[in-house]
């Protein structure tokens, strides 16, 4: 039977069975006794399987002895208990068929050695063949599955919000404009000097920066909903934690206040980390060995500790009293920078912190104004080692106050009539938050650069693959 490497190593297939495995060669070693040992990976799990290929194979001299890293093969043989350390089973090969050779083994980029992360970004199409990117990819998948499972179990409904929009949900002006290439397909407009994108839709359109406004409408009908999809921001920040294209998870809950949202964010993150520890122990063990010694214990500590909650005003006072020399100023009314966020969660409390009630002028127009008139019901979750991982808020559900905030930010009402409707037809207190999926992957895998948390990173100047 054809089986995955993971299945062959699992113990579920009895020793003595005939199996066929297919994948890519990691290493080949020839023994003096006229045998070759080939490590084969198909990415189904962390561990490759060892094939023991005897010289008696008809293509031993012509092919098997020429296999190099990256060659694709199909191997059939008997599954047997292994004497080798670190693996329970190996395969005594009876047939090895080469599906694809590596053209020039000397220059094949993925050699069996440690490569720098910078180098691997240049071969983003081949880096999934490394141990590290195999592990990160499986952990990312595990997290995505756990996201859907958590919300499903909690009674949330997944809502798919549009990628092409007309509104700037965050009001930060970091929009990519959408345009068409083919003039002949334009339903509107005339030839010559047309704005292709605008004329296709009859108005100017952009790639979404957040599905929040759209998903709010669904929360005000289905009560508990979430989006999980690609998000685009043309922010010209070449940092280790910003991407131009990233995935965001945005739950939105009717009748929820800030306290409920902070509780949800805590329960949610802990569920995700527990899922990874339970389901990807092999990959996490490798991460702990190669990337960050404390990767597993850090997640365990995260799960065990209750989140700290700090008011923004208190956070500013703490930062000012810290005696720390920060690059950016600390002053009530200014946004917290990564260095401040990290000091709060790392130096001050040593665990995740929820900072609440930020000054109204530095936060988005849709956030609910507090009774003090100068702060909004916003919350950011700051994690040690990374800073902001979640941003959220209670939404302004009162039409007059929403209108006032839109006017204050110079937002044109006519683009948001549908959003105002939600405050005119059965408005209720509600709110939600956004979790950056790649920041989550970075955190779990101990990655220091967000470009390594997504298969094909998009950053200023980079869209190669
Ligand atoms: O704080 P942000 O901008 O919040 C929103 O977009 C709200 N609409 C969310 C909501 O309330 N429904 O973004 C939320 C999270 C951040 O905390 C961060 O983790 C991530 O999205 N994020 C980015 N991740 C990678 N690259 C970028 N350029 C990011 N910008 C935000
Ligand atoms: Mg934010």
UniProtKB/TrEMBL annotation:
InterPro entries membership: Aa-tRNA-synt_II, aa-tRNA-synth_II, aa-tRNA-synth_II/BPL/LPL, Asn-tRNA-ligase, Asp/Asn-tRNA-synth_IIb, NA-bd_OB-fold, NA-bd_OB_tRNA
One Gene Ontology MF term: ATP binding
EC number assigned by the record: 6.1.1.22
GO cellular component: cytoplasm
Protein's cellular compartments: Cytoplasm
Keyword line: Aminoacyl-tRNA synthetase, ATP-binding, Cytoplasm, Ligase, Nucleotide-binding, Protein biosynthesis
GO biological process: asparaginyl-tRNA aminoacylation
Main location: cytoplasm
Family of this protein: Belongs to the class-II aminoacyl-tRNA synthetase family.
Official protein name in the record: Asparagine--tRNA ligase
Organism of derivation: Coralloluteibacterium stylophorae
């Amino acid at each position: 039977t054809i089986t995955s490497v993971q299945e062959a190593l699992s113990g579920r297939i009895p020793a003595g069975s005939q199996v066929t495995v297919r994948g890519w060669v990691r290493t080949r070693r020839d023994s003096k006794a006229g045998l070759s040992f080939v490590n084969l990976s198909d990415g189904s799990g962390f561990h490759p399987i060892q094939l023991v290929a005897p010289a008696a194979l008809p293509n031993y001299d012509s092919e098997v002895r020429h296999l190099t890293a990256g060659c694709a093969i199909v191997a059939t043989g008997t599954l047997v208990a292994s004497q080798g350390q670190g693996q329970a089973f190996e395969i005594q090969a009876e047939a090895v068929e080469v599906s694809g050779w590596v053209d020039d083994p000397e220059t094949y980029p993925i050699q069996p050695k440690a490569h720098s992360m910078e180098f691997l970004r240049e071969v983003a199409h081949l880096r999934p063949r490394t141990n590290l990117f195999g592990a990160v990819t499986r952990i990312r998948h595990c997290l995505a599955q756990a996201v859907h499972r958590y919300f499903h179990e909690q009674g949330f409904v997944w809502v798919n919000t549009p990628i092409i929009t007309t509104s700037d949900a965050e009001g930060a002006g970091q929009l990519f404009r959408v345009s068409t290439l083919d003039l002949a397909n334009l339903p509107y407009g005339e030839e010559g000097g047309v704005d292709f994108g605008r004329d296709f839709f009859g108005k100017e359109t952009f790639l979404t920066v957040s599905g929040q406004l759209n998903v709010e409408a669904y929360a005000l009908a289905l009560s508990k909903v979430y989006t999980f999809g690609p998000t685009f921001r043309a922010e010209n920040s070449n940092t280790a934690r910003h991407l131009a294209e990233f995935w965001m998870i945005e739950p939105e809950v009717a009748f929820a206040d800030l306290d409920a949202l902070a509780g949800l964010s805590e329960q949610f993150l802990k569920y995700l980390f527990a899922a990874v520890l339970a389901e990807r122990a092999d990959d996490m063990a490798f991460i702990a060995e190669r990337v960050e010694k404390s990767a597993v214990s850090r997640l365990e500590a995260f799960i065990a500790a209750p989140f700290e909650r700090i008011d923004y005003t208190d956070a500013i006072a703490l930062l000012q009293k810290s005696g720390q020399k920060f690059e950016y100023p600390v002053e009530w009314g200014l946004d917290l920078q990564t260095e401040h966020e990290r000091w709060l969660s790392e130096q001050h409390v040593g665990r995740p912190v929820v900072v609440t009630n930020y000054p109204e002028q530095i936060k988005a127009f849709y956030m609910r104004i507090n009774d003090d008139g100068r702060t909004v019901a916003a919350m950011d979750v700051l994690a040690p080692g990374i800073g902001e991982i979640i941003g959220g808020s209670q939404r302004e559900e009162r039409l007059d106050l929403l209108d006032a905030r839109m006017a204050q930010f110079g937002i044109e009402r006519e683009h948001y009539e549908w959003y105002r409707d939600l405050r005119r037809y059965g408005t209720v207190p509600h709110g939600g938050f956004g979790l950056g999926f790649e920041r989550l992957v970075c955190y779990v895998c101990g990655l220091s650069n967000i470009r390594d948390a997504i298969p094909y990173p998009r950053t200023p100047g980079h869209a190669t693959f």
